[in-house]
């Protein structure tokens, strides 16, 4: 029996009133939130296994829009069922086979085209959590149109090509994440030092488990709150520096 890698309880979420709206972009549904003023800067948010409708991820979209970015979270699962907290972990490997975070290139292109042609975006960053963090790492190796990326607790594991980042990328990890060991974090750091030609940053947040950074304020434990807030500020600072 595989241990539940998401140590926070996803069953009891406080209600979240979203600020944005849902849109259809070619064959993809997406959640879009825009700042109150016009801008040519945008951020794509890549959801975790719980999908594009999960309240925590919409909270992050709204947060980024509040910092002045056209922010969009497309359904990278293309209408298929996301993982839910009542699913059985024994089935997770099979589910992952049909939801490969390295197979997001087509969807990314659709969204980039929309942001450029329909929203007038000139600079576009990307942020992803867990499953989405893996997708971000992959896309930052493949898609030069993405000005900067932030991968939160998600890495491409099994490719020697995974260190040649095209644009500035920031990796955020929790110290107590049992899906990504600190050994893997140190290996990533070591290899990026050798191979990476663009700015990058790796940061580990003390005592934090997988999934820590997308909790809404009312769902945070007091001990974790400072680290969650710091990770979010760091994420936004990285985007502001480059996008």
UniProtKB/TrEMBL annotation:
It holds the Pfam family DLH. The lineage of its organism: Eukaryota, Metazoa, Chordata, Craniata, Vertebrata. It comes from Ploceus nigricollis. It is found in: Cytoplasm, Cytosol. Belongs to the dienelactone hydrolase family. This is Carboxymethylenebutenolidase homolog. PANTHER family: CARBOXYMETHYLENEBUTENOLIDASE HOMOLOG. Gene3D superfamilies: alpha/beta hydrolase. GO terms for molecular function: hydrolase activity. One of its GO terms (cellular component) is cytosol. Residues 29-241 form the Dienelactone hydrolase domain.
């Amino acid at each position: 029996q595989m241990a539940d890698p998401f140590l926070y309880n996803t069953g009891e979420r406080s209600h979240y009133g979203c600020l944005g709206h849902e849109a259809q972009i070619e064959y993809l549904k997406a959640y879009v939130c825009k700042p109150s003023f016009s801008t040519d800067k945008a951020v794509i948010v890549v959801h975790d296994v719980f999908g594009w409708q999960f309240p925590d991820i919409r909270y992050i979209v709204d947060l980024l829009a509040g910092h002045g970015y056209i922010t969009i979270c497309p359904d990278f699962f293309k209408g298929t069922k996301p993982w839910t907290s009542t699913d059985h972990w024994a089935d997770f490997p099979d589910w992952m086979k049909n939801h490969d975070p390295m197979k997001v290139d087509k969807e990314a292109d659709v969204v980039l085209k929309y942001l450029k042609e329909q929203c007038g975006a000139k600079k576009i960053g990307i942020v992803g959590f867990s499953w989405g963090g893996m997708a971000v790492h992959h896309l930052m190796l493949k898609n030069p149109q993405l000005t900067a990326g932030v991968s939160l607790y998600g890495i491409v594991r099994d490719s020697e090509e995974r260190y040649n980042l095209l644009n500035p990328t920031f990796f955020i990890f929790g110290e107590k994440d049992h899906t990504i060991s600190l050994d893997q974090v140190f290996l990533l750091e070591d290899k990026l030092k050798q191979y990476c030609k663009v700015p990058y940053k790796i940061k580990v947040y003390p005592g934090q488990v997988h999934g820590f950074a997308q909790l809404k304020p009312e769902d945070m434990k007091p001990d974790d709150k400072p680290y969650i807030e710091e990770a979010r500020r760091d994420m936004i600072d990285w985007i502001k520096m480059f996008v």
